[in-house]
Recover the amino acids of this structure.
DNA sequence: ACTATTATTTAGTTTTATCTAAATTAATTT
DNA sequence: AAATTAATTTAGATAAAACTAAATAATAGT
């Protein structure tokens, strides 16, 4: 993960990260419009930036064919994600933030340039493996356990797993979870799914409850014994 | 110190901080060239930025007359300095950095925008009053104990005080201090000064030593019982 | 008071990251 | 296969922050 420290602007870093995340969803090459939407900018701006990143050989690009990260680009993405998630752990574990408050600030902190800083922060936090949302933290070398988390709405009946994250971290949703005694770290089993409305019956630590499709598509489980 | 959160770029913040520091040295209005030197930029760039800051009424400016910070400008400066110094304390106290390593990274961290973050960091660090170099940390409200630190070279004979900071934080100088058993927190008394070369005789915790003018003009003492 | 020197500002460019509007290519329908 | 629609790129503009070179104002020396 060291490479030879390519100089990158904040903007370039955010684009690289966006491309990484989009290519996770849909492993093929990433569309210009998708990047524009993610970055809340215009497709023409994306094209400009893609050309720049391509010149730096951080992405593979052919006109009208979309982009994918090069190996260097992937490493840059992982190093930014590593920083983002370590700062999130710091804010939650050391500064008593709650998990829904940290993302915006981590968006800024992830751009601080200092390898020493991030190494020592990692040590200070006890080398955490996941961030407060349950997402894995890449190592310095750019390796990390591939996420095995899936949305409840995507899992087959009888799946069992630990609740490790949410999609929607709005205050309203978090309040709902609290009220229904659903918390990070709880183990759930999917008992049944209603084809009609997609609602799901799950067993939790307080008994069996039924959740709507909307809720099920916002809760991630980590599946046991996955590779 | 809250004001109504003026939007400021990183560059504007660094200029405001530079103007603040320069006006501390020499309380009058600050010269364009002095800012250019401090910021390692050209006078013409400084003029451009001054006009911008003046439009935002963060500085008082009349052509050819130099600039001074407005009251808002002073508050902005103090809030950046507060952040800079708190991050320095964090790196030294929590991440085991040494005091000569933290400044460059703090130059970046001071620009992170989050009032909550800095408040919680302050609490996490136990509301420190000084940074690792002995410089005072402004409060949220923009008040702080006026520095009573003086260079040994500027103090009269028989002054006594606690060593709280250095001017030159090069590795070579810090090594020298270590070798001579001079550390932050030690109490020194100035016994004698040689007019010929400005060298000074001081009593330290390991006995009496003689230091050159060059060393004396790099060590700050905090004088006891000053207001 | 005049001149030389220094400090500061202005004018005109450059680079980076945006944007809008127009042109082009790709994909979908009929 | 032609026409329509959608996606993408190009062209041209703008704003921020820098620069160089030239002009102007302030200061100092005689
Ligand atoms: Mn970011
Ligand atoms: Mn996260
Ligand atoms: Mn800075
Ligand atoms: Mn300091």
């Amino acid at each position: 993960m060291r490479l030879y420290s390519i100089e990158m602007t904040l903007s370039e870093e955010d684009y690289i990260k966006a491309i990484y995340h989009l290519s996770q969803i849909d492993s093929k090459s990433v569309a210009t419009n998708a990047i524009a939407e993610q970055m809340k900018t215009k497709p023409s701006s994306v094209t400009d930036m893609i050309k720049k990143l391509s010149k730096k050989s951080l992405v593979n690009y052919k006109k009208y064919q979309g982009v994918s990260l090069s190996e260097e680009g992937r490493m840059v993405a992982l190093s930014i994600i590593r920083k983002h998630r370590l700062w999130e752990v710091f804010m939650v574990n050391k500064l008593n933030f709650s998990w829904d408050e940290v993302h915006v600030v981590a968006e800024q902190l992830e751009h601080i340039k200092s390898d020493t800083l991030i190494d020592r922060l990692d040590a200070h936090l006890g080398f955490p493996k996941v961030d407060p949302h349950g997402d894995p933290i890449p190592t310095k070398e750019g390796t990390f356990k591939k996420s095995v988390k899936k949305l409840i709405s995507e899992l087959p009946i009888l799946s069992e797993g630990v609740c490790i994250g949410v999609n929607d971290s709005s205050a309203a949703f978090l309040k709902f979870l609290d009220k229904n005694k659903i918390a990070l770290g709880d183990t759930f089993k999917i008992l049944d799914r209603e084809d009609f409305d997609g609602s799901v019956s799950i067993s939790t630590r307080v008994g069996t409850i039924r959740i709507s499709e909307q809720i099920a598509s916002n809760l991630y489980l980590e599946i046991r014994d996955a590779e």
User: Anything to note?
Assistant: Chain A has a mean pLDDT of 90. Helices of chain A lie at 10-25, 32-39, 43-55, 71-93, 103-109, 115-124, 171-179, 213-216. The two ends of chain A are 23 Å apart (CA to CA).
